[in-house]
Design brief:
Zn-dependent hydrolase; 7-stranded mixed sheet; about 15% helix; alpha/beta; hydrolase activity
Length: about 260
Amino acid sequence: MQLTYFDSNSWLIELGGKRILLDPWLVGKLIFGNLGWLFRGSKTTERPIPENIDLILLSQGLEDHAHTPTLKQLDHNIPVVASPNAAKVVQELGYTQVTTLGHHESYIFDNTIEIKAVPGSPVGPTLVENGYILKALDSGLSLYYEPHGYHGATLKEMSPIDVIITPIIDLKLPLLGSVIKGQKNALEVCQWLRPQVILPTAAGGDINFEGLLISFLSTEGTSDTFRHLLQENKLSTQVLEPKSGEKVVLDLKPLVCG
């Protein structure tokens, strides 16, 4: 398994001989609802869009997961697997092969990768977006992704999983509390799934953030404090923090269930 980080929640996953582009923000600004004065993200380093993408995987319909300027530039014939909300975004853009996955639904891509949608992040009072479990059918290697740190208890039934991509620090707003749930929730999901490797997402990369909202955001926890939590709880999970644009080749050992 090989992983390349592209800032925020954007990843290139190379698994089972397939190249999967996850929640890509690769070009332009990141602005929610055209409210640049409230929040605006800018990449400090422009990188080329990866070539030979086999699949686009979208967990949410919000701009930091289904980034319209990026999706406009990608080949609209690339197959897409998406949450119902994200599927609407790519369908409106004219993508030709869109598979919508609801919670606990699975899809086999090209007889190679099993993609299972699990409950992920709440967006508003009624909508819950997707997390995903990816499994290579040849090797059995598996990966779990949830970008805001919301992990449903049904994940316990899917242990063990080799790799987790999820936040490991908390991002908080006054009155609202944690909008990104890291330390405690990441520890809990590691206790459930016993991964060999965990990689942080959501709060990293070569990005400059501006806008009124930034002055109210605060963080809690660090990678080092999370490593200490793992050690305290006798977990051997390795924390890897790839730099933006850096490909990480994971040397994973076969896991034994039970």
